Each structure stands twice: as C-alpha cells, then as structure tokens.
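New to this. Explain these tokens.
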Amino acid sequence: MSGLLTAIHVIVCLVLIIAVLLQSGKSADLAGAFGGVGSQTVFGPRGTSSILTKVTTVCAILFMVTSMGLWILSAKGTKSVLKGEEGISTKPAATQTQKKETSTPGQKQKETTQKQKKDTSTTKQSEKK
C-alpha cells in the first residue's frame, strides 16, 4: 500500500513541477516588460484559466493528500530498527558500570593531611638548598 502511494506521490510531484515551470508569469506580455499593467485591477489582469492552471490545482491537491497518506502510514508502522539483531545486550548501560572503591570521610581527611605534610617537607628541603 505504501509503495503504491509513494509511486503516485512521486509522479504527482514531477507533473506538478513541470506544470508550474511551463506556466507564464502574469506580466509575460510586452507591456509587462516595460512595467506597464494592462488594467487597473489590484493584482493585474486575470484571464481565463488555462489547462496548466487546472492541472496545477489538481496536482497540488493530490500532492497534499498523498503526503498526508504517507504520513499516516509511516505512523502506523513504528518498528524498531534493531529488532531481531544479534549481539545486542538487553541490560541498560547504566547497570553495566563497575563498582568503584569508596572511602570514608575519615580516610579522605587522613590522606589530605598526609599530602600536606609531604608538601611542607618538600618546600622546607627546597628552601635549605
């Protein structure tokens, strides 16, 4: 179903592009080249609608309908990309972390005082030299 809708969508897109590019602008006559306007209407003269105008309108409506149809079909088919693949762990990455050695606050305080003593002894030795 989505393959058929995609094919129709692509064909409608191509026809819409061609229909828009083949249409002439509103000032395609000689007066429009020099800035003149054929009548005093707000948006310029409006002639009868040609076959290209009708094709453009129909293709624009079909484009919108097929776009919405593809959107609806894509929402229904929510599948996992990784479903059925081998070698994928089922545990989340957060549970696979290794345990770190924890120290108590008292041990941290002893370590910092030992570092301070070493620092003061090295500064005294460097002052003596």
